[in-house]
Amino acid sequence: MSLLNTLLQATNFQNPFLRNLVPSIGLAYGIQAAAAVPSIIAGTERFYDLSGSVTYISCTALSLFLPAIRARSAAAAIGAAKPAWPSLIAALRGQPASPLGFNWRQIALSAAASVWAARLGSFLFARITAENGTDSRFENIRNSPPKFLGAFFAQATWVSLCLLPVLAVNSLPASTFAALGGAVSITDVVGLLLYVGGITFEATADRQKNQWLQEKREKKHEEDFLTRGLWSKSRHPNYFGESTLWTGIATLSAGVLTSNAGVAGMAIAGTGLVAKAVSLLMCGVSPAFVTFLLLKVSGIPLSENKYDQRYGDREDYKKWKKETPMFIPKL
After folding, report:
1. Strand locations in the chain, DSSP E?
2. With contact defined as beta carbons under 8 Å apart, do 54 and 123 qualify?
3. Chain centre distance of CA 108
4. What is this structure's pTM?
5. Is 267 left (phi over 0), alpha (psi -120 to 50) or beta?
6. In this predicted structure, what is the pLDDT of residue 155?
7. What is the pLDDT of residue 7?
C-alpha cells in the first residue's frame, strides 16, 4: 500500500468535514515543519512568511480536490475506471455538478484565500529580501531552536484557524449545493464585497507604504513616519483591510454552512439551532482570530511600541496619533 493510500485510509472518517479537515491541518503542520528545519539550521527567517503563503495555498487546494483524490484512489484500488477530475470551468459556468463537481462558492472562497496569500507572501518576501533577510520580530527567536520551531508551528495554527470556513465549505458534497439552489444570496454578495474591499484596502496601503519607503531611500523626503494616503485615515490601514477581507470570507461561508442544506452536509451537531450555532462559530473563528492577532499580539502592538519608542516625544507624531484612528479608518 502506497503512502498516499495509507494516509487516505487513516483519515477516512465517516464525517465528511473531518475527512477534509484533518488532512488539511496535517498538511499545514507538515509544510511548516519542513520549512522550519532549514530555517533553524541557517538561523534565518527569510522564508518564514513565504512558507506561510505556500501553506495557505496548498491546504486550500488539497481541501478542494481531496474528495476527488479519495474517489480516484478507491477506484484504482478495485481496478475500476477512475472518475474524471472535477472541472473548475464547469463550476464557474454554473453547469450541473457531478458527484465530485465544484460549486462556484467553493471556487470563489478557495481563490479568495489563495489570491490573498500569494499577494501578501510575495510582498513580504520582497520586503524582507530588501532588508537583507532580517525581520525585527525574530531578533529574540532565531537563535533559539525551540522558540523558532514554535513560531513555525504557530503559523500552521494560524493557517488552520483562518482557513476553517473555507475547509468546511470545500468538504460539502455537490448534493448540498444542489439543495441550496442556484440563486445568489445576500451573504454571497456581502461576503464578496467585503473581501474585494478589504484586499483592495490592504494592497493599496502596502503599496503606499512601499512607495514611501522607496522615496525615503532615494532621499525624496525626510519623513520618519507615513501620514499620507490611507495612512492619514488609519494608523494601520493594511491590518484593517486584512481583518475586513477575512470577515468577507467568513460571511460568504456562513451563508452556506448555516443553511439547512449546509448543516445537513456538515453533519457535526444534528440539524437544529445548535448545529447552526456551531457552523456560525466555525466561520466567526477566522476573522476573530485574525483581528485578535493584529490588535493584541503580533501586528499593531509591535508596530505601535516601536514607533512610540522612536518618536513618542515628538509633537508631530503625537498630533498624528491623536487625530488618526488606530484601526477603523475615519471618513
Report:
1. none
2. no
3. 13
4. 0.91
5. left
6. 95
7. 87
Cβ contact 271:262 at 8 Å? no
Nearest to 106 by CA among 49, 23, 174, 161: 174
pLDDT at 268: 74
- Which is nearest to 159 in space by CA: 293, 14, 322? 293
Q: How far is CA 115 from CA 111, 155, 199, 325, in A?
A: 6, 18, 9, 28
C-alpha cell of residue 143: 537563535
Round to whole Å and give the CA distance between 208 and 199.
14
DSSP 203-250: HHHHHHHHHHHHHHHTTS---SS--SGGGGT-S-HHHHHHHHHHHHHH
User: Grid cell 447552526 — which residue?
Assistant: 276
At residue 266, the pLDDT reads 83
Location of C-alpha cell 512601499: 210
Residue ranges of the chain whose pLDDT lies below 70 = 1, 91-98, 269-271
